[in-house]
Amino acid sequence: MKTAIRVMLLAALATMTTMTNAAQPEDKPFAEKKVVLQISDGDPSKQTLVLNVAGNIIRHYGADKVDVEIVAFGPGLRLLFKNNANGDRITGLVGSGVRFAACSNTVHNMGKKLGHDPELNSNATTVSAGVVRIIDLVSDGYVLVKP
Amino acid sequence: MTITVNKKRLYASAILCSLLSAPTYAANWLALQGTEPDSAAPRAKVWGFIQPEFSSTDGTKLKAGPWKGQNAIFNQMRPNLKTNEGFNVLRARVGVRGTGMPLDSNVNYFFLAEFGNNGITAEGGGSVKITDASVTLNHIPGARIRVGQFKTPGSEEGLQAIHVFDYINFTNATNGLLLERFFDGNGSGTNVVPGTPPTFNNSGDANRPNGPVSAFRDTGIQVFDIFKVGQWEHSYAVMIGNGNGITRGDNDDNKETYLYWSSELVFGGAGARRQGWKLFAWNQNGKRTLITEGAGEYDRTRSGLGTTFKKDKYRAAFEYMTADGMIFNGTDGGALPGASSNNGQTISSFNVETKGEADGMYVHFGYAITPELELDARYDVYNRMTDVAAKERKFETVTLGAQYFFNKKSRLIVNYEARKAEAPNQASTSNANQILDSIDDRIAAQLLIIF
Question: What is the CATH number of the domain that holds B263?
Fold first, then answer.
């Protein structure tokens, strides 16, 4: 009987943990706000803008109280190219817990034009499709902002 | 645990970024003019600036010499030399720069055209000239390649972006030694023999420039790069060019070589007004070919070194330069080119010494009283033809200036230039010294807007 109760408790605990993880990443356990920033514009000034917005959000709420993910696709993917001039700023934001997602579809399409897939910033995580990633995050309660 | 790993990665990345040699993209003229930010440059960014100005001298006439009583070239407004006071749109430039294919940061371009009224557009016909047209290839680490027409790696005063220049006029040495005028002859064929047709050496030729001034530019190929080591930024450039200025092809088989090095301790900021302490040195060497009076090939060498400092409210700069070989030597008697002497026997012409020596320097201090108002002071001296006592001339100018910034892209510059010159090896009563005593102080105001 005790064993059965233990199994049930463990199962319940595992379920709760899974639900929590689905809602917010494990490195942001105390996040009260969740924001996804979209960059899909080729204008270089938008790169600066989206990084500024992310920085402002972190400063306002505090790094532990807000969960920010920047999703790049289309022409905006250049932000996450390995040699991007904003690399240091990206590294700094990663240090505050900001995540960067790169669209695989865009990577492959750009690869066709370049003759090879572009090398990405090591801080970027590839997702199958940038727009799908945004839809999923919005479904999970993230607020979408497109600076 | 995950956080720890991320932090380690962070620290490692930060250390790598700061210690490894890596290109940077700001406050370095080679980088600012020849490269674009990696993966962050537009396909085509349109930009430019306009500099309308007012300039005035007393218009003192020549006090001695064959052109006594006539207009003195140094008291007239450049480039037209028609008046000693007036308005002019000195520069009006429009350019496009960026990457042809934004996905590929390995190739970028720079294009700029001049619509203003200055030494670029006043000579050689046409009212618009292309000043810059270059392509940079960034494929080889440590050896970027720039090809086309662009500013040559050299003197800070010439290489810096003109729209962040703290003054209206260049220093005497930079104007005389580096802002090159190109001539077909040495200016010796100026005699006029009354009653006889002009001959090759008696043509009454004013020896006007055969086209635009160099504008500190050349057409050629440059290998360069920028390296960051800690807080220091080092850069180098090696260039081979025609040595024939802008909007021309080459006129001989000789090629100009340019060498440049700079190291800068970067304090902070970015762009053309980044704060830092920079040391630099440069050399350019080549030959010039004359085809009329004094036809032949002549050496032309320039070298210099200097430093710049900019931190918080303070700015300072110093540069020393030397010249050997061909040297621009003004006009006969300080008169306007083409002016007939009072006895009608000579036409004043531009002159070039085909073998001479010269040196010069400037020192500059600036202080920003408020974010909107900056005060500047500059002393410069130019010693021309120091190897021939009779021909030696010394030009000195103290410039007091103020800059009022309406915003970061527009400002008003006001300069007062206390100017004097002398022939140091001649008596004060000599013609040369009396002519040089004709030099007036100059006041100028300039509006600048960058878009």
Answer: 2.40.160.10
Q: Whose CA is closest to B395, among B364, B433, B355?
A: B433
B370 touches chain A (CB under 8 A): no
Residue B363 lies in a domain: yes
Q: How close, in Å, is residue A134 to chain B by CA atoms?
A: 23
Percent of chain B with pLDDT over 90: 83
Note the pLDDT tens digit of each residue in B246-291. Answer: 988 898 889 999 999 999 999 998 888 899 999 999 999 999 999 9
Pick the residue from chain A with its C-alpha nearest to B13.
Answer: A91
| pLDDT, tens only, B176-211 | 999 999 999 998 876 655 555 555 455 567 888 999
Report CA dihedral (A102, A104, A108, A110) to the nearest 10 degrees. Answer: -20
Using the Cβ of B10 and the Cβ atoms of chain A, whether some distance falls under 8 Å is answered with yes
Neighboring chain B residues of A83 at a CB cutoff of 8 Å: 38-39, 105
What are the chain B neighbours of A95 within 8 Å (beta carbons)? Answer: 6-7, 10
Show residues of chain B in contact with A85, CB under 8 Å.
25, 37-40
- Average pLDDT of the residues in B294-310: 97
What is the total count of domains within chain B? 1
Name the residue range of residue B358's domain. 22-450
Largest CA distance in chain A: 65
User: What residues 14-43 of chain A have any CB closer than 8 A to a CB of chain B?
Assistant: 26-27, 42-43
CATH architecture of A31-145: 3-Layer(aba) Sandwich (3.40)
pLDDT value at residue A14: 47
- Residue B1 within any structural domain of the chain: no
Beta strand ranges found along B99-231 (DSSP E): 107-114, 129-137, 144-151, 217-229
The answer to whether position B11 is within a domain reads: no
Q: Looking at B20-98, list the stretches that DSSP marks H as alpha helix, in order from N- to C-terminal side.
A: 29-34
CA distance A109 to chain B (A): 11
- Name every chain A residue with its beta carbon within 8 A of the beta carbon of B14: 91
H or E segment to which residue B379 belongs: strand B373-384
B188 C-beta neighbours (distance < 10 Å), count: 17
Q: Is the confidence at residue B137, as pLDDT, over 50?
A: yes
